[in-house]
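so im writing up the methods section and need the Phosphotriesterase-related protein record in one place, dumping it here so i stop losing it
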Amino acid sequence: MAEPIDTAAQARHLHTTLGPLGARDVGLVLPHEHLLVDFRPADSPGFAQADPAEFASVVEPLLAGAAAAGVTALVECTPPGLGRRVDLVLDVSRRTGVPVVVATGVYREPWVPDWVYGASDDELEAWMHRELTEGVDGSGVLAGFIKISAAEDGIRPVEERVVRAAARAAARTGALVGSHTTNGDVVLGQIDLAVAEGLAPDRFLSIHTQTITDPALRQAIVDRGAWIEFDDVGQGDDTRTLELVLGSLEAGQAGQVLLSHDAGWFDPALPGGGTPRPFTDLTGSFLPALRAAGVDADVVDDLCVRNPFRAFAR
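--- predicted struct ---
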């Protein structure tokens, strides 16, 4: 019997450096990677700067390797304040033919850009909305989602303003709000704030869910209707991550789970951009381990093909 067509998904698109892509245009998608990150203060000499040729020499092999491993699109999760460079990303994406989704949004303190503190709530929302609908930094590339964060000990005032503005911009556009927040209680608080501003819970993603050690908190996030993401594949021994994913599948969460590496990237603070990690461990070792543990091919396609498209497309 033919698989039923998800007509809602067919009408949506993944917004990338190479234009909008429909569900039939993409296969395996990596939902959390980086091509350039700079964790230094924004007033540091050389912040977010990179020679285009040097950047390409580091990043193009990463993208080419991912494509050779079967990756059809990649989400670049660097927001403003951490060195977002859509111009450089666009160039290597065109050179390699790998579509890249870029982010708008605001990270947590102390990486909140100075201008955010002086902006009104309406101005924050309008800025994110423009990047989602008109493009980023004059590049013509639409931001594909909103990246936010929060402190581990609670949501600080500026971070609450960002959550609310992001939720309103996302509700207007259908965009996903992804949050780098490793305290499960804080994630639930962010979801409550976002829903109060009109965001559908399935437009919220809990990034780095592997750091939330309490399974009850992970289940609570899923029960709210949000996505969860295990994105440390290849960062070390994947045994625990494999156990977490298998546990989520056993708990019936397959329709809300995403998998990625949180790998890369060019670091302008390091000589030559540093030593990046590849985007190939998921396909090279992790998915074979899932299959060996008895996860069938259709579920693997949910985790790596259908779920990331459903999460990020709008």
